[in-house]
Write a structure and sequence with these properties.
heterodimer, A: 384 residues, alpha/beta, Transcription Regulator spoIIAA, 2 domains, 4-stranded mixed beta sheet, 13 helices, elongated, B: 265 residues, Rossmann fold, 6-stranded mixed beta sheet, 10 helices, 37% helix, 24% strand
Chain lengths: 384, 265
């Protein structure tokens, strides 16, 4: 109601006078957002005296929703001890358009202030329910994925390798630049870090062993983990956003009505593409990362190129590379499942797409790191 | 209403509730072959829920939905997938797959559910697109189409497998009056040409009275009236009358309550 360029705001004053057994609170000025406290205080004081109170609104100038809401709330709370007097036609018309005080009797307090304890209990049960629901959906989706890639093709559910190939290009090739950048930087960093530690043990003569440290660290851990995290942020989120948006626009329902199972049609190709492209990307990241180690080792630390090359060849075993690639395939599946499960959970509108996308990235990174620990322990115990 | 066993759509005592909230409380109706049945009612009355039950997207809490002689709740997902090509559904906003061209969208059911050769698929797609007045749009992406065009493309996709029953969810909502009237005309033309049986859910009264052979009024999850458009127009019962004649719901006059808080001195 108050727009720029309107006349200046008149501050509110409230004067209380006594007339017979009643108190009269005369309001003078604009009944606006910023002026409410004055009115509240005057009304409180007048009501405290025990007398009935008449609120004289004759000299109220402009008013806004906050002011009108204040009147409604106070009239209701006073249970008949507060009445409005001389309200101008404009103000009365505005008030009459609001639900009258009696209509929402007793609803206000519970609406405004749920007890903190209740709120905590509610939130806790909600969180537990949400997590069990997520786990359930994730497991169901995993079983469906296994079904559609193993038994499904023989029971009339086509395995859509053409779609998987298309997705693989989107996931894999487009991610090469960022994977290369991160891998080469990690190679450089690891080169410096290992050199610093080696120096403490035996001086510059040990620099050659940074080839071992960089090579093994990159192939076994840094390559798979970093690539998986990049792909979770890049492609996992894209899967959630795409499937979630399709849920909002009824595209998933449309697929179902055409007799196409969304899991088999949409989700399986996406997960397959991640399972294929992530190991490829990790192989690429391994090479580039070791290249980064070269740069530090040969150009900065001065190890001769041929020696570094021979040392690297000796240090890295095939098992180092293969354990990394096996992990990458599993990471790819986890990222795909998490992304798709979150996408299919989207209810409502665009806000939920954003929430579920964030959640998908966080959950898939956590899952990747947890499963990495399990793998590392198994490999360690199994001496691989 | 004759109880014909061959009626393509039979809904018996359909109830749906989410938790404690009852959406549908016992809905009964049948649709005869070649008939356009319009289900109308105010927003939130459960119209779309009925439609979702009719195509098996939602399983009813109780009651039976029989479409083309098959009781949907007795079918498992695989059987539903095989049944669904016999019905065509038009979604409120068309629900075209945004990642594909209009042509690929319309071709999708053919490519997935039949083994027709690509040339035949292409010919059928062109035919269906021209039936809904969208010649030459098959290379465009859904995002490049207007709302009305998207709905028509959605209709073409719903028609492509020549289903025996059609379901329309708010076919004219969000369209300007002229486009809406054109869409209704299209539905009537197709009805004449294909002998189409259809269930249409809408709150657009003009459109409802234009296309309906029979109509049902759904209010608060119950079917409160059913009949031909003329019969519905003549109903005098309060809620139906006020819905059909667009009068606001009668509420308590708040001014009387307010008057108790005003003092004139």
């Amino acid at each position: 109601m108050v727009l720029d360029g309107e006349p200046e705001i008149v501050p509110m004053t409230a004067e209380t006078s006594i007339r017979g057994p009643d108190r009269i609170v005369r309001l003078q000025g604009d009944l606006l957002r910023g002026h409410i406290a004055v009115v509240e205080r005057a009304v409180d004081e007048a009501l405290l005296s025990g007398a009935d109170v008449l609120l004289d609104a004759r000299c109220v100038g402009r008013f806004d929703s906050a002011g009108a809401e204040l009147l409604v709330r106070r009239l209701k709370a006073a249970e008949g001890r507060l009445l409005l007097m001389n309200a101008r036609q404009e103000l009365r018309a505005f008030l009459e358009a609001l639900p009258p005080p009696e209509v929402f009797k007793g609803e206000m307090t519970s609406f405004l202030r749920p007890a903190v304890a209740d709120l905590l209990v509610d939130t806790a049960t909600e969180v537990v329910e949400r997590i069990t629901d997520k786990v359930r959906r994730f497991v169901v989706l995993f079983l469906q994925f296994v079904y559609f890639v193993t038994v499904g093709p023989f029971l009339g559910h086509r395995l859509r390798l053409d779609r998987a190939a298309g997705e693989t290009i989107a996931v894999g090739i487009d991610a090469l630049p960022i994977v290369a950048l991160v891998a080469v930087l990690m190679g450089l960093i690891l080169g410096f870090q290992s050199a610093a530690q080696l120096e403490k043990f035996g001086g510059e003569g040990l620099y050659i062993f940074s080839a071992n440290l960089v090579g093994v660290a990159i192939t076994r851990e840094i390559g798979p983990i970093l690539t998986a995290i990049l792909i979770a942020g890049r492609s996992g989120s894209a899967i959630t956003a795409e499937i979630g948006t399709m849920a909002v626009t009824e595209e998933l329902d449309a697929l179902r009505v055409m007799g196409l199972n969304p899991v088999s049609f949409l989700v399986v190709p996406k997960i397959l593409s991640l399972v294929i492209s992530l190991p490829c990307l990790v192989m690429f990241a391994d090479l580039v990362g070791i290249g980064g180690g070269f740069i530090t080792g040969c150009l900065v630390l001065g190890v001769p190129f041929s020696e570094y090359w021979a040392q690297t060849q000796e240090a890295i075993h095939l098992s180092d590379v293969f354990t990394g690639l096996a992990k990458a395939a599993v990471f790819g599946m986890l990222i795909g499942l998490t992304g798709a499960a979150h996408g299919m959970m989207v209810r409502g509108g665009s806000t939920d797409v954003g929430l579920k996308t964030t959640s998908a990235v966080v959950v898939s990174i956590a899952l990747v790191i947890c499963s990495d620990l399990i793998f590392t322990m198994l490999f360690f115990l199994g001496d691989v | 209403m004759s109880a014909d066993a061959a009626d393509p759509v039979v809904v018996k005592d359909l109830c749906v509730s989410y938790g404690e909230r009852a959406i549908l409380r016992g809905v009964d109706f049948r649709v005869k072959k070649g008939e356009i049945y319009v289900l109308m009612g105010p927003s939130g009355c459960g119209k779309t829920t009925v439609l979702r039950c009719l195509v098996g997207l939602l399983r009813p809490s109780s009651g039976a939905v029989t479409v083309l002689g098959r009781e949907l709740s007795s079918l498992d997902e695989d059987q539903l997938d095989r049944f669904r090509p016999q019905v065509g559904m038009l979604f409120q906003f068309g629900a075209l797959l945004n990642s594909m061209t209009v042509g690929d969208n319309v071709a999708l059911p053919l490519r997935e559910r039949t083994d027709l050769d690509p040339a035949t698929v292409h010919a059928i797609v062109k035919l269906k697109l021209s039936m809904v007045g969208l010649e030459g749009t098959h290379r465009r992406m859904p995002a490049e189409l207007s709302g009305g065009m998207r709905k028509r493309a959605g209709l073409a996709r719903a028609m492509v497998l020549d289903p025996q029953v059609y379901f329309f969810d708010e076919p004219t909502s969000g369209l300007d009056p002229v486009t809406a009237a054109e869409f209704d005309q299209l539905v009537l033309t197709l009805k004449g040409a294909l002998g189409m049986t259809a269930v249409v859910v809408t709150h657009d009264l003009d459109s409802a009275f234009r296309i309906a052979d029979r109509m049902g009024v759904l209010i608060n999850g119950r079917l409160v009236a059913e009949g031909t458009p003329d019969e519905i127009r003549r109903v005098k019962e309060g809620r139906i009358h006020s819905f059909v004649n667009r009068t606001p719901r009668a509420g308590q006059d708040d001014r009387e309550v307010w008057a108790r808080f005003f003092v004139y001195a």
